[in-house]
């Protein structure tokens, strides 16, 4: 039974009181009866104690009990005024709303209303004003499209309420909104596999090659077999199949030869899931260049011939008199039986039998026909080098200040080969190659090859920078502005001074031109949105017809009071 309103409760109390009073006034009167003697009745009348006041007290108790019962039947006072404010439907435009079927849930909530429509992406887009017609709503529905990152729903709610507009929010997750804002939750958990990032670097070796690291994540609850394709704007570089366990992240490294391209695209092909926007990612390719080596000395046929056969290596031979300080992008300089005067070269250097007192580890004595007793084959310089026996005519004993280097080879007389891995790297070989059998062994080419890679830190270039979050936009110098052009698709933007970022861009490859020159950037799908279609949904929908909690304290107390009053009335009423 529906509770009574306060007016209805007061009316019920008044009617009950009127009936009780009338019954009291119209009660049955005494009847005159003639009897032979009044003695028995006089004895009974003496035992009665003021029956009139007991009758009045009983009447008051009945009236009070009816009031308590009427009060128990009255519900909580509510101001149920019709909300006449204009209405608007705020649609969460975060990336997860791009999952199939979620934007389709907007139309049923607009149908039959004159509500406006706001799309909350990284900015607020008013697609239809409050009081919109059917035609305006239909046009607004055509422009609904999920964006990147979390939608600005909270900001949209604040703006609409400040303007006196009643908001309703449609989203695929439960948001922390004011209690008077209705949330309409759509969507259900779905499978999602994402290509998180593509990072390329120049891999070790000569000639140079790319090492491309691709990270993928399976955000769903089932194991997925996916097909990954790596391509440039001009060609497909290769396909591979990967098994992704549920909830796991997998990283794969692929090596490939240089290509005429500035970027690569890793994408999942023949693949369907709830969020196709994160099924691809871009990566920039570093510039591969040959290794640049200088050989300074009177001439060494062994070294020149070995260095000349390495692919991807540019060799320049200099006479000692024509030596000058090398450029900073030189990979390795080899001093053969000479040493620079003045400052060190500032780049990785190898000193072969330098004059006494020169080089980073000067010699202090010589030993003829030495016997090598110590080899440190754990260093990268000796990687793959088979050095079982070495014959030299004479060796210079090197000085090794404490903590300044690492001994790679030594004789009974002291260190004969010392290396320092601190920048700029240096290595000193304390004997003349032409007066040893080392150039005649199979270990010699491998040793020289290792020296080139050691000088370049085992890589041929720095790893390219990772992608930026597309929801944050492309950074721009606010003082000068920039011109931005998309590389993987059509698109160009002129950014005037005053903006610190160009937002609203889709994931892709972009070139920024400003006063500092040109620079390539990769924008990735926001990592915070990957996997959101598989987690935490559906959230409960708040219902307008939720049952009221039973046993309200006020009503229960009034009902008990009414019952107690009736019990007292039963005791005190005259019989």
Mind explaining what this structure looks like?
This protein is of the alpha/beta class. It has five domains: about 1-25 and about 50-75 and about 555-575; about 85-165; about 195-285, Immunoglobulin-like, CATH 2.60.40.10; about 290-455, 3-Layer(aba) Sandwich (Rossmann fold), CATH 3.40.50; about 475-495 and about 505-525, no CATH class. It is about 20% helix and about 30% strand. It is built from nine helices and 29 strands. The strands form seven sheets. Strands 14-13-15-16-22-21-20-18 form an eight-stranded mixed beta sheet, covered by helices on one side. The chain has a five-stranded mixed beta sheet with strand order 3-2-1-4-5, with helices on both faces. The radius of gyration is 46 Å and the shape is elongated. The two termini are about 35 Å apart.
Describe the structure using short key phrases:
575 residues; alpha/beta; Immunoglobulin-like; 5 domains; eight-stranded mixed β-sheet; five-stranded mixed β-sheet; 9 helices; 20% helix; 29% strand; elongated
What's a concise summary of this model?
The protein has 575 residues and is α/β, with parallel strands linked by helices. Helices cover 20% and strands 29% of the residues. It folds into five domains: 1-27 and 48-75 and 555-575; 87-166; 193-284, Immunoglobulin-like (Sandwich), CATH 2.60.40.10; 291-455, Rossmann fold; 476-495 and 504-523, no CATH class.
């Amino acid at each position: 039974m529906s509770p009574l309103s306060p007016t209805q409760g007061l009316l019920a109390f008044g009617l009950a009181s009127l009936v009780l009073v009338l019954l009291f006034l119209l009660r049955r009167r005494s009847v005159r009866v003639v009897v032979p003697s009044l003695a028995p009745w006089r004895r009974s009348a003496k035992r009665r104690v003021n029956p009139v006041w007991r009758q009045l007290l009983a009447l008051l108790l009945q009236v009070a009990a009816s009031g308590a019962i009427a009060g128990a039947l009255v519900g909580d006072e509510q101001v149920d005024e019709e909300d006449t404010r204009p209405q608007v439907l705020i649609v969460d435009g975060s990336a997860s709303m791009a999952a199939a079927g979620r934007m389709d849930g907007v139309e049923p909530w607009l149908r039959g209303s004159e509500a406006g429509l706001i799309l909350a992406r990284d900015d607020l887009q008013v697609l239809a004003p409050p009081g919109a017609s059917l035609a305006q709503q239909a046009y607004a529905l055509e422009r609904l499209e999920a964006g990147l990152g979390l939608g600005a729903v909270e900001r949209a709610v604040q703006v609409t309420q400040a303007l006196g507009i009643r908001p309703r929010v449609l989203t695929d997750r439960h948001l922390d909104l004011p209690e008077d804002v209705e949330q309409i939750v759509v969507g259900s958990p779905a499978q999602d596999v994402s290509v998180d990032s593509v990072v390329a670097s120049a891999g070790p070796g000569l000639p140079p090659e790319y090492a491309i690291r691709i990270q993928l994540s399976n955000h769903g609850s089932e194991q997925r077999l996916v097909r990954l394709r790596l391509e440039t704007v001009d060609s497909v570089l290769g396909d591979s199949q990967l098994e992704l366990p549920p909830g796991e992240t997998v990283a794969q490294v692929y090596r490939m030869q240089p290509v005429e391209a500035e970027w690569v695209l890793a994408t999942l092909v023949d693949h369907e899931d709830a969020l196709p926007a994160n099924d691809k990612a871009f990566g920039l390719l570093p510039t591969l260049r040959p290794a640049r080596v200088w050989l300074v000395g009177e001439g060494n046929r062994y070294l020149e011939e070995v260095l000349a056969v390495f692919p991807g290596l540019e060799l320049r031979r200099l006479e000692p008199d024509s030596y000058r300080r090398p450029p900073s992008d030189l990979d390795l300089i080899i001093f053969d039986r000479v040493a620079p005067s003045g400052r060190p070269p500032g780049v990785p250097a190898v000193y072969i039998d330098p004059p006494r007192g020169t080089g980073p580890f000067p010699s202090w004595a010589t030993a003829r026909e030495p016997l090598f007793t110590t080899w440190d084959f754990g260093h990268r310089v000796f990687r793959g080098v088979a050095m079982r026996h070495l014959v030299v005519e004479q060796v210079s004993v090197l000085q090794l200040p404490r903590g300044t280097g690492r001994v790679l080879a030594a004789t009974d007389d002291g260190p004969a080969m010392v290396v320092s891995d601190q920048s700029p790297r240096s290595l000193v070989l304390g004997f003349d190659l032409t007066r040893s059998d080392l150039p005649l062994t199979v270990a010699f080419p491998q040793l020289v090859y290792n020296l080139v890679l050691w000088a370049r830190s085992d890589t041929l270039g720095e790893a390219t920078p990772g992608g930026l979050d597309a929801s944050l936009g492309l950074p721009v110098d606010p003082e000068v502005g920039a011109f931005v052009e998309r590389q993987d698709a059509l698109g160009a933007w002129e950014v005037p001074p005053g903006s610190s970022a160009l937002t609203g861009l889709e994931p892709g490859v972009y070139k920024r031109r400003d006063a500092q020159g040109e620079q390539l950037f990769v924008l990735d799908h926001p990592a915070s949105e990957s996997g959101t279609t598989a987690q935490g949904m559906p959230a409960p929908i708040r219902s307008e017809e939720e049952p009221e909690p039973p046993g309200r304290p006020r009503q229960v107390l009034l009902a008990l009071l009414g019952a107690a009053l009736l019990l007292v009335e039963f005791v005190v009423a005259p019989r």
